[in-house]
Amino acid sequence: MDNSIITEQVEKSIRKKFHRTLWSRFAKAIVTYELVKPNDSIAVCISGGKDSMLMAKLFQELKMHDKFPFELKFLVMDPGYADANRRLIEENAAAMSIPITIFESDIFESVTHVQKNPCYLCARMRRGHLYNKARELGCNKIALGHHFDDVIETILMGMLYGGQVQTMMPKLHSTNFPGMELIRPMYFIREEDIIHWRDYNKLHFLRCACKFTENCEISPEENLSKRLEIKSLIAEMKKTNPQVEKNIFKSVENVNLSTVIAYKQDGKVHNFLDDYDKK
Q1: pLDDT digits (tens, 9 = 90+) for 53-112
Q2: Which CATH architecture has domain 3-217?
Q3: Is the N or the C terminus of the chain less surrounded, counting Cβ atoms within 10 Å?
Q4: Taking each helix axis from N to C terminus, what angle separates 191-200 and 148-162, rounded to the nearest 10 degrees?
């Protein structure tokens, strides 16, 4: 199929069929959390998966509305992809008229022999490289494609495996790159709706950017990652409580400090006993 036809079909689906589930929720996050401001220059970070590719198209749609001036750079980092995977990213970008800028790094090679937490190290290194390249291109923000499901899974993972209450924030100031921010405009978008959009348009994206899994198919039985365990747990709870996902999300918006034993703020621990006898 001609690329212009694919682009037209994809963009029409966002405006029409998926207007409520994708576009409206994207726009809501932008407004609610003030993610895009006049004269921003945003590096839209594309990994090649369904989430970041959709994010790129949503940003293009936002740009077309032209409510205030801002700039976009569509940034792809090649951390050591197999040739077929890099080619798939390039072909998808061309088919959907996303003008990507590709730069290379050796991250996959750097973490190949790391035994402890290679995924965590890889993620941190990738983000650092993205910040650096974005700043080099004159950007003041990087946008990542994390969605609603990522947010609620992170909340539960922190509680059940980390012993802490925290969430994946919709935006963050960079600590290592002063003046730079990270934004997550897909914050309200459900993964099932992204999958629906992908399948409706008959698109095929990179399933996993990781060098350790890019050449193999891993079954759910073999992959015992904590995130998949949490995803399964939420799906099971949803069978008896359809509101469970919304409630998990709302739990970090409705924290009542009067009923919390202790909490941290700016690195300092506050305990309810600190002023208990003063009341």
Answers
A1: 999 999 999 999 988 999 999 999 988 888 999 999 999 999 999 999 999 886 666 556
A2: 3-Layer(aba) Sandwich (3.40)
A3: C
A4: 140
